[in-house]
């Protein structure tokens, strides 16, 4: 089907060709080697006329030129808008999903290059702090959706700690990436409430309230003017705020249950189901806090989001992974969870690398079927069913809940290292990115991006030798092959001039120079897409030189 502009152009050319043919001068009929032409005229009754061969040829040439011009306009418009004629088939590819007898082949049309570029750039954004003095120079964000609806979210907020008109040298800047699962209710809620909750907790710390400290200890701190704003207390505040917010999410439906015994209306059930949605679904979170006054950065991670820092100093670049994936196959997490439950649950707490055989991350917001008692879960699910919603199943070995916590692990770094290094950037991303590139590869790609956004495709081995990015030891879980090790040197990286660093990372995670693979990964949709790529959300935070 022709696009509107092409249809209009073609119709105009057709009208022009008709008027041109009618306006040709009509010579006196003469016999020309027996060639006779007939045509109709709106200026009178049908008559038979004879025209010269030269006139016929001229009219034909004019018509051909005009039709060719119309075809050119139509082709340009359709190519520009990504529309092709029905007689031309797009490239198709087939993927196989499922296992055993459930295996099936699904065919997709490959997106055009223009459509892929539009998809890569659709959600990208770059921002700079509105206040001078903040050590954050800029941050780039982007995401590519896989799930329908999209379950990831991100957030960025600057909290001033100085008076209006002063510089931002005391600002607190928050960045978070949030990876939802079993729906987007939890990630949506956290994108709006997490940073305010963290800011409130830190305001209490600034006034002398240290989380977990006894009341007489708090009084002592106030009377002695003890310095409560310290790295260890900031870490405690972040941990306490994560847990407090999750407690409100999980306890909300339980507190609302008694009201359901009084009000059995459909409206009350629908409100209850909406309240329970963030508790029933779940989300993992990675948060970075930049403390401008003290030139410090804190990273708090619950689940398998990841933060990776890039340092530059006299000896070149260094990759510093600031978090450890909290998963059911992480030996540290397995040992921690088994230590928190009776020995008879040793085989059920973690099964097949998952919490009770179900949830892959061992820490998360929401996921309250792993936190409620069986009686509480059944009562909540009964109301959700009455509201017409499908609840998550209660876990089978629910003996001593909770089995999942939102308590994060917190890491602290100064923006300037003791050996002359400076923190240049932090890559904060959901596991959709880390499923396809490693922490060290993200550092390598971002460091090389700062050197030049556009260059010819470069082999992975060559770029690893060129940039020579070192890594901090010991490396946290999961420990993956390093760039230049020989095992990850196949293929090439691309530098296609992206103005947004998050887009640059996503582009390379989706196949690098293998543009055919990139096209196929971006062309997948529906439930099939999730078999091959996850929602991918990336924030890159750049610091002043």
Which features does this protein show?
alpha+beta, six-stranded antiparallel β-sheet, Phosphatase 2c, domain 1, 545 residues, 15 helices, 38% helix, 2 domains, disordered N terminus
Structural description of this entry:
By secondary structure, this protein is α+β, with helices and mostly antiparallel strands. It has 2 domains: 4-80, no CATH class; 113-326 and 361-543, Phosphatase 2c, domain 1, CATH 3.60.40. The protein is 38% helix and 22% strand. The protein has 15 helices and 21 strands. The protein has helices at 4-23, 53-80, 113-121, 185-206, 215-223, 231-262, 266-280, 331-339, 374-386, 431-434, 439-451, 460-467, 501-509, 515-523, 526-532, and strands at 37-38, 48-49, 92-97, 104-109, 125-127, 136-144, 152-159, 172-181, 282-291, 296-302, 306-313, 316-321, 350-351, 354-355, 365-366, 409-414, 422-429, 454-459, 470-471, 492-496, 536-543. Strand 11 (306-313) and strand 12 form a beta hairpin. Helix 4 (185-206) crosses helix 6 (231-262), helix 4 packs across helix 7 and helix 6 (231-262) packs antiparallel against helix 7.
């Amino acid at each position: 089907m022709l696009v509107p502009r092409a249809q209009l152009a073609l119709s105009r050319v057709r009208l022009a060709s008709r008027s041109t043919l009618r306006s040709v001068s009509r010579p006196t009929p003469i016999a020309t080697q027996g060639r006779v032409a007939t045509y109709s005229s709106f200026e009178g009754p049908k008559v038979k006329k004879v025209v010269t061969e030269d006139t016929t040829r001229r009219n034909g040439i004019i018509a051909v030129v005009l039709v060719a011009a119309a075809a050119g306009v139509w082709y340009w418009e359709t190519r520009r808008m990504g529309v092709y004629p029905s007689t031309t088939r797009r490239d198709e590819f087939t993927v196989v999903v499922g296992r055993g007898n459930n295996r099936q082949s699904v065919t997709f049309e490959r997106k055009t290059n223009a459509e892929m570029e539009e998809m890569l750039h659709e959600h990208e954004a770059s921002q700079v702090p509105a206040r001078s003095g903040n050590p954050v120079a800029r941050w780039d964000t982007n995401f590519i959706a896989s799930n329908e609806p999209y379950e990831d979210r991100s957030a960025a907020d600057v909290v001033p700690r100085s008076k209006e008109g002063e510089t931002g040298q005391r600002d607190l800047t928050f960045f978070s990436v949030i990876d939802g699962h079993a729906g987007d209710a939890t990630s949506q809620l956290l994108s709006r409430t997490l940073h305010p909750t963290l800011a409130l907790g830190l305001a209490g710390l600034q006034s002398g309230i240290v989380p977990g400290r006894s009341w007489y200890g708090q009084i002592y701190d106030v009377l002695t003017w003890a310095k409560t704003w310290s790295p260890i207390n900031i870490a405690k505040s972040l941990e306490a705020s994560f847990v407090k917010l999750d407690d409100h999410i999980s306890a909300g439906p339980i507190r609302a249950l008694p009201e359901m015994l009084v009000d059995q209306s459909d409206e009350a059930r629908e409100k209850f189901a909406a309240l329970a949605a963030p508790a029933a679904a779940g989300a993992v979170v990675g948060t970075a806090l930049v403390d401008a006054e003290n030139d410090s950065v804190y990273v708090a991670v619950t689940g398998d989001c990841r933060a990776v820092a890039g340092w530059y100093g006299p000896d070149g670049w260094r990759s510093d992974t600031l978090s450890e994936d909290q998963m059911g196959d992480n030996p540290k997490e397995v040992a921690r969870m088994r230590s928190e439950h009776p020995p008879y649950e040793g085989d059920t707490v973690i099964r097949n690398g998952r919490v009770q055989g179900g949830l892959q991350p061992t820490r998360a917001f929401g996921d309250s079927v792993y936190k409620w008692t069986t009686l509480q879960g059944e009562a909540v699910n009964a109301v959700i069913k009455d509201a017409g919603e499908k609840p998550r199943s209660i876990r089978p070995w629910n003996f001593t809940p909770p089995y999942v916590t939102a308590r994060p692990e917190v890491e602290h770094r100064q923006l300037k290292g003791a050996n002359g290094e400076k923190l240049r950037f932090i890559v904060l991303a959901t596991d959709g990115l880390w499923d396809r590139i490693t922490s060290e590869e993200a550092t390598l790609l971002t460091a090389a991006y700062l050197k030049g956004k556009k260059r010819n495709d470069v082999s992975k081995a060559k770029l690893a030798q060129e940039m020579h990015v070192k890594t901090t030891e010991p490396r946290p879980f999961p420990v993956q092959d390093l760039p230049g090790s020989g095992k990850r040197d196949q293929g090439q990286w691309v530098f296609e001039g992206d103005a947004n660093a998050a887009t640059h990372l996503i582009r390379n995670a989706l196949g690098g120079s293998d543009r055919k693979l990139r096209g196929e990964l971006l062309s997948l949709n529906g439930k099939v897409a999730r078999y091959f790529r996850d929602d991918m959300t990336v924030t890159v935070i750049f610091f002043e030189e």
